[in-house]
Amino acid sequence: MSPHIIGITGGIASGKSFVASVFEKAGIEVISADKVYHDLILPNNKLWKLLKDEWGNDILDSDGKIDSKTMSNIVFFDDKALKRLNSITHPVISETLRNMFLSSKSEFLILEAPLLIESGYKDLVDEIWVVDIPEQLQIDRLKKRNGMEETKAKKIINKQLTREERISFADKIIDNSKSKEKTENYLKQLIKNLKHRSVNK
Prior knowledge:
This protein has 201 residues and is α/β, with parallel strands linked by helices. It has two domains: 122 residues, 3-Layer(aba) Sandwich (Rossmann fold); 70 residues, no CATH class. The protein is built from nine helices and five strands. A five-stranded parallel beta sheet has the order 2-3-1-4-5.
């Protein structure tokens, strides 16, 4: 029987990875869409070949790996290039995720995916849980975590779904605007409920 899949998503710097780590510590299988992408762009893997065919050797570093900074610079200032990148990567990632889900022996599984809604990965999950924080807190975290200027932080946030759009897809909202301890306590209750749901099937 295939697992019940919960997709965890949220805006940049909302704390998705922290949330996913709490589930992982509780023994629930977690798959990161970002990690799947990074595995697929390793030299000679499927996406590496497709991206190299599309943009040439200019996107490779001295070791022949995809240079993430170069790739980011290409798509950040060019919406057409971003759409092209997404049209290449998302189908391959979706196919890989489907195969991972099919081979999973878990009853519940977490898919952590920043672009869960935008990419169409939402069709792969049974529930969508959104990690939510106010926009100003996103900006503050980006400035602190990445040493980013406020103007750039706002540009990145504005390229993503709005907070309201994201929440409109949510089956559950995880407020991560307070302390990590408070979020973790809330998540532990959700995990307890999941396990209780499993026992009472």
